[in-house]
Amino acid sequence: MKISAASAVLIRADTPTGLGSGHILRMIALGQAWRSNGGRVIFVTNTVSEVLLSRLHNEGFEVHRTIGAHPAREDIEKTLYLGQTCAVRHIVLDGYHFDRVYVQHLRGAGFCVAMVEDINQQDFYEPDILLVPAPDAKNYGFCTAPWTKKLFGPEYALIRKEFLQAKKPQRLLGPSPHVLVSFGGEDTPNATGLVLQSLMTIGWLGRVSVALGVLNLHRKRLMEFLHNNMLDIEILPFQDNMADIFGEVDILVGAGGGTCWEACFFGVPSFCLAISKNQEPVLESLSKLKALVYGGNILTLNKKEFTLQLQKFLQCPSDLQAMREHALQLVDGKGVERFIYEMLRNSYGKEICHS
Q1: Residue 321 in contact with residue 172, Cβ under 8 Å?
Q2: What is the mean pLDDT of the chain?
Q3: 229 Cβ contact list (under 8 Å, min separation 6)
Q4: pLDDT score, position 18
Q5: In DSSP terms, which residues pair with 152 in a beta bridge?
Q6: What is the largest CA-CA distance in the chain?
Q7: Side by side, which strands form the sheet with 208-211?
Q8: Exposed e or buried b for every residue in 170-207, given b needs 16+ CB within 10 A?
Q9: CB-based contacts of 294, cutoff 8 Å, min separation 6
Q10: If you average pLDDT over residues 265-277, what whole number do you get?
Q11: Does the domain formed by 165-330 have CATH 3.90.950.10?
Q12: Which residues partner with 300 through β-bridges?
């Protein structure tokens, strides 16, 4: 099934305080694929980040801001208005505040609605499609409407085109691998600072690069820490193409979320921390599959134990190589294709009549 040139998708995603930019970044993957197949992409968001808004515009998406977020009435009213005036058939929601009431409004107006989730956080789900990339999502106890198509598992991980088009590194891991430290958009608990302190404690001599997210709250403090300790660490400027960075590093120390799936797809062994409660189940399941090492939730970590865990992770090249193979087998990069196929199949033959 192909996307017609006139077919429009409306993507509704935000950057909630404390949770960074992950929801928007993975929806960029959907928008890229939809647009490359000839469709129209309308992005509705409440983000105030000029960097993210610029990224959305540069992708060729039509971008609309909403000041309030659901349950603010302005949110659903604007989404319905844009959906109707832009002849939208599909609406995709990515955000923890889009509840059953929001979905009912959209489906009641005749739209085909898809939701992207990480965990089971609602009593009942009733979109047309529910996508959850977690390996054991089927065990999360989702209660859904009879019509809801469930797309569960890593085969539905949404990977952006810069990763899909990049060449994966084939080099073997040596005794002093190049470490990338990346904790997403905001890094509210300053996990980056914790990792850098631990690397200094263990006397790490390998190369270290730090990617600070566009919304990072601790940039000034981190720069002062590096200056005062004279650490030879590279601070990477923000760039749209994280795949270029992944192509240069050997291992990742970072947060749960979209970066984990990108690291798996690229075969970059990862040591991950949960920086919010909702990241724990996915990281635990990926750890059981030996696709990464899960170090725990940063809010409950014992710093001394964490440093020992990190040291052990960094000093076992053979384990890292095995982890790379497990990760590569888990994520094949075709999740967006499968998602779009199911969206089109779901709406095929339906009469869409916006009231």
Answers
A1: yes
A2: 89
A3: 200
A4: 47
A5: 132
A6: 65
A7: 233-236, 208-211, 179-182, 251-255, 270-274, 293-297
A8: eeebeeebbbbbbbbbbbbbbbbbbbbebbbeeebeeb
A9: 272, 273, 274, 283, 284, 286, 287
A10: 92
A11: no
A12: none
Looking at the chain, how many residues does it have?
355
Window from 50-54, 60-64, 91-95, 337-341 with minimum mean pLDDT: 50-54
CATH 3.40.50.11190 location in the chain: 8-159+333-347
Q: Is the pLDDT of residue 301 over 80?
A: yes
The DSSP code sequence of 107-158 is: HHTT-EEEEE-SS--SS-B-SSEEEE--TTGGGS---B-TTPEEEESGGG--
Domain with CATH 3.40.50.2000 in the chain: 165-330
- Helix (H) / strand (E) element for 86: namely none
For residues 255 and 304, what is the distance between their CA atoms, to the nearest angstrom?
A: 19
Q: Does residue 262 surpass a pLDDT of 90?
A: yes
Amino acid symbol at 29: A
Which architecture does CATH list for 8-159+333-347?
Answer: 3-Layer(aba) Sandwich (3.40)
Residue 261 and residue 164 in contact, taking contact as beta carbons nearer than 8 Å: no
What global pTM score does this model have?
A: 0.91
DSSP state of 217: S
In the DSSP assignment, the letter for residue 254 is: E
> What is the C-alpha separation between 332 and 273, in angstroms, rounded?
23
Helices 100-108 and 73-85, packing angle to 10 deg? 30
* Residue 74, CA distances (Å) to 69, 81, 152, 242 in order: 7, 10, 32, 34
Which amino acid is it at 70? H
pLDDT at 243 over 50: yes
3-state secondary structure of 209: strand
CB atoms within 10 A of CB 271: 23
- DSSP per-residue codes, 7-30: -EEEEEE---TTTTTHHHHHHHHH
pLDDT score at 250: 92
Angle at which helix 50-58 crosses helix 22-36, to 10 degrees, equals 10
